[in-house]
Amino acid sequence: MRIVFFGSPAAALPSLESLLAAGHTVELVVTQPDKPAGRGRKFAPSAVKAFALAHGIPVIEPARIRTDEPALERIRAAGPDVNVVVAYGQIIPHAVHYFPRHHSLNVHFSLLPKYRGAAPVQWTVIHGDAESGVTIIELDDRMDEGDILAQERVDVGPRESASALETRLALLGAGLLVSILVRIDRLPRVKQDDSAVTLAPKIRKEDGRLSWAETAGVIDRRVLALAERPGVFTAIGGKRVNIVRGRAVESAECAPSDATADPGTVLRVGKAGIEVACGAETSYLIEELQPEGKGVMSAHAFSLGTKIAPGDTLV
Predict the structure, then answer these.
(1) What is the rounded CA–CA span in Å between residue 109 and residue 228?
(2) Predicted pLDDT of residue 166
(3) Count of CB atoms situated within 10 Å of the CB of 114
(4) Are the CB atoms for 241 and 290 separated by under 8 Å?
(5) CB of 117 within 8 A of CB of 199?
(6) What pLDDT is stored for residue 39 in this prediction?
(7) What is the mean pLDDT of residues 46-50?
(8) Domains of the chain
(9) With bands split at pLDDT 50, 70 and 90, how would you rate the model's confidence at 252?
(10) CA torsion angle for 139, 142, 145, 147 (degrees, to 10)?
(11) 127: Cβ–Cβ under 8 A, 6 or more apart, which residues?
(12) Rg (CA), the chain
């Protein structure tokens, strides 16, 4: 089939690679414009753009595809049999959805109608779901509300990070996409159950702020979900610190006096890390962190160079 592929981050690459490996022709890639990245904030291409250019596939990167008529003309001129959308990052206009013979398909990283929106994987981990999966829908004019063509479920590991889960789902979705394209004309379309809808809105930087009044288990899930993007943070001595890695402390490891400590109080500092009191008489061990303007380091190394001791407070 002739395909126009819409995608931006690395999570979209397995689908793009699988389409090419299966013998489909990707006539055009539509991706997000280059964005500042890294400590130097230099402009860098999306992972999909870099791959496409390396493989000689034409690329366009409209800033606002809904109002970019030249971009829409390029898409029409590519003459796709189907459009494929995987983590593109913009809402695609009606004019694009339906003109290909097989319309437009979206690979979504959740079990729709659960977690419609921009960040389904992160909210899956934040909420501690035991199950996730991939859904392929036919796009319509409403966000993630199109008819379901295929769906596949997977278990979520007890402490699986969002990045690890997203990697698994990206591979799962790629295989599912290729398998349905060979029988696209025979697939039934299943309406989504609107009574079962939940939302997965875009993650904001502020969503990474820790509240030590929450239980250690809740904090652990937030770190697993958001540590890589956009970051999870607290303040130590008035300075922002990103939490990179840690774990909830088992109750058997706690001292009786820990139960009386206010949330955010440093309980212990040692080679294992910095242990902090949380809500409901639980505690969380910070194992790796990143002080503002510095690189990632062990919490123990941080404690050696910073005046932090039991009784101090994180906010």
Answers:
(1) 18
(2) 98
(3) 21
(4) yes
(5) yes
(6) 66
(7) 98
(8) 2-196 (3.40.50.170), 205-305 (3.10.25.10)
(9) low
(10) -40
(11) 221
(12) 23
Here the tokens at position 289 are 């962190």
User: Which are the contacts of 83, defined by CB distance < 8 A and separation ≥ 6?
Assistant: 3, 4, 5, 6, 75, 92, 96, 97, 100, 103, 104, 105, 139
Length of the chain: 315
Q: 314, 303 in Cβ contact below 8 A?
A: no
The token pair that represents 315 in the structure block: 């906010």
Amino acid code (one letter) for 74: R
Q: Which amino acid is at 234?
A: T
Distance of alpha carbon 175 from alpha carbon 249, whole angstroms = 38
The one-letter amino acid code at 25 reads T
Most distant pair of Cα atoms in the chain: their distance: 71
pLDDT tens readout for residues 201-237: 999 999 999 999 999 999 999 999 999 999 999 999 8
Structure-block tokens of residue 118: 């921009």
Structure tokens at 112: 């729709």
